[in-house]
Input
Amino acid sequence: MSDSARWEERYEKGDTPWETGQPSSELQRVAAEVPLHPCRALELGCGTGASAVWLAQQGFDVTALDLSARAIERARRRADQAGVNVRFLVGDVLSPPPELTGPFDFFFDRGCYHVVRREDVAAYLETLRRLTRPRALGLVLAGNAREPHEPGPPVVSEEQLRAELGSLFDLVRLREFRFDQVEKDGTRFLGWSCLVRRRVLLEVPVASVEDALAAQAGGADRLELNAALSLGGLTPSLGTLIEVKAAVALPVFVMIRPRPGGFAYSRADWPVMQRDADLALQHGAAGIVFGILTADGRVDGDRCRSLLRQVGNGAAVFHRAFDVTPDPFEALEQLIDLGFRRVLTSGQEETAYNGAVLIAELIRRSAGRIEVLPAGGINRFTVTDIVARTGCDQVHASLQTKQEDRSVAARPQVSFGGSVKLPEDHYSTTSPEAVAELRGLLRRSVDA
Output
């Protein structure tokens, strides 16, 4: 039996103990305490619509989703009887219908998360990433593993909740409460009431285990693993990937770029890229980062499509090769059609600060079909302005400092860099302090 058929059967039989016919008392309490102001609101797993209708009565512009068509039919009747407008949709939160479009400023989940997390928590979070805007508040109610019951709501531990929701949201407040439903013995199940705020994600490019540890300590959300960051990033060694994966808990995306200097790769380069992509994915990469252009600077659809097939269920990211394409809007649509998850861009300028106008337009045109990730020269002086001007929900920033290596001091005249003579007694490494400072600036930009 499919999930849809199972929920339909339960509503047909009346086996829905969570349906009290009243709006969630915890939602009402939080709305009064925060307070919540009328805005575009989304309810996930709305059931027969009591809470959605209550939100509409408070002035919210409400859209509500449930997997059960029978529940949605009853919810629509409830809204009609209450004389309010709610947009009720039938659909799966893990693969929402195309007519469900954001962005929303508030979402409420009375128990959807604790059900679907066991199936695909990443898809649940991706739905929220796509449908909510930075600064959006959310209230998630979930069963509490401190008091498991059978039957009863699925349960989650505090550690699981913080780890899973914390990958996309800052936890504003977490407290225990009792669900409204009352069992025959008078029991009311213990739950978690989790108020969250959508944050701007911070991706940090790294080139070593030391860098990865520093980025994680500073509060990065995601890593892009490279070699030779001074050359714009090249494919890292397999050993580096293996050790980084062992050292940190963050998602690691691996650069696939066999050489510096342009993005139209030779016949000899191409199988190297294919092999590197396979190895990275086999050893735990969350996805790969690449960009392949034709000789005239346009997206090479055939070769990109081939690597995308290798990625399978992983994520493919198109890097800043995008910034040298002759028509950024044509390139954007091509990347969407190919199936890329994300594109990095400085807005085809030297820095994302200078390219903010184009980045904002790319975000507007993408309409959630692809993630647009500002990158290029982002630092503590520019990040707040870039977020404000583009409306982005994530940034990519290389936050490095110089480290000294005195092992070459005996022969200062020796250089290993060819015609470009860089100091041999210094190297760059990620600064945890710089990452933490940028993380704090992003948090304050959201709270403002």
Q: What stands out?
A: The first helix runs from residue 3 to 13.
